[in-house]
Amino acid sequence: MDDFTDRVVLITGGARGQGRTHAVAFAERGADIVLCDRCEDSDDVAYPLGTAEDLAETVRLVEATGRRCIAVKANTADRAAVEALVARAEAEFGRIDIAIANAGVSANGTIDNLPSSQWEEVIGSNLTGVFHTVAAVAPGMIERGYGRIVTISSMLGRSAAPGQAAYGAAKWGVIGMTKSAALDLAPHGITVNAIAPGNISTPMVHNDSLYKLVRPDLESPTREDVEPVMQMLHGQPVAFLEPEEVTRAVLFLTAEASAHITGTVMPVDAGAAARVTA
Ligand SMILES: NC(=O)c1ccc[n+]([C@@H]2O[C@H](COP(=O)([O-])OP(=O)(O)OC[C@H]3O[C@@H](n4cnc5c(N)ncnc54)[C@H](O)[C@@H]3O)[C@@H](O)[C@H]2O)c1
């Protein structure tokens, strides 16, 4: 289950955070890696996104394992850019066996104060970008009769929280799209599953904007200040999980032996899933 020798793995949003831990874990297990990241900030996202330096560091970590890495600056909301990356990877590495549609942003705005530009940014990155990724890898996987696709949803893809209309709409949408794609690709040896993470320790959550949203009563809230509130979203008494915990679920769902697990949603959320119906 832990052997990915000579597999080719595409990971979007690979500059840092969960995308980076997935990339390094696959490389350590013998895979060649294909990465993209937008490597620029967005006016509609209140925290810094991944940078070119971050992406270069992921490449360094992958190459340090002895595996090959293609990495480009590309925004998954741009279908042509995603298709160009897949075409390049298929030309240089021969194929894509595994795709992890991981890129995403977080933005907070209550429904009465949610600019269209913020809605479009979140839907573009978190839902349309996932569609572009799955759609771009599917034809080659169908041709070869093999594929493992994982999309990244969220515990907010099966529940709600205040200020998360756009994020929730995108992450619920990812699950619907994943299940439909699983059936479309079922005849071709390709599985498609979603992972629904809880609070994961990455720059998406450890930033001033989120800390202030969670603790509006404090001038300069710290990690310790937000932990009790973040922990309430989970079932177990833990505020944040490590990105490597999501990586383990990714490795399980993309293993060759997981051939008959498709159309599912796997939570990695310290028990938050116990509160939702399905
Ligand atoms: N951190 C959490 O608590 C949490 C919880 C549930 C789900 N998620 C999801 O996990 C995924 C990974 O997030 P993370 O926690 O590693 O956050 P992160 O911000 O550390 O990493 C996300 C990376 O994706 C890149 N990115 C964002 N939009 C992009 C786009 N349109 N095109 C290309 N690259 C883009 C960013 O530049 C960044 O490098 C996201 O889909 C996120 O919504 C995160």
Automatic annotation (TrEMBL):
Residues 7-198 form the Ketoreductase domain. One of its GO terms (molecular function) is oxidoreductase activity, acting on the CH-OH group of donors, NAD or NADP as acceptor. InterPro entries: KR_dom, NAD(P)-bd_dom_sf, Sc_DH/Rdtase_CS, SDR_fam, SDR_subfam_1. SMART domains: PKS_KR (SM00822). GO terms for biological process: fatty acid biosynthetic process. PROSITE patterns: ADH_SHORT. Transmembrane segments: none annotated. Keywords: NAD, Oxidoreductase. Pfam families: adh_short. Signal peptide: none annotated. Belongs to the short-chain dehydrogenases/reductases (SDR) family. This is Short chain dehydrogenase. The lineage of its organism: Bacteria, Bacillati, Actinomycetota, Actinomycetes, Mycobacteriales.
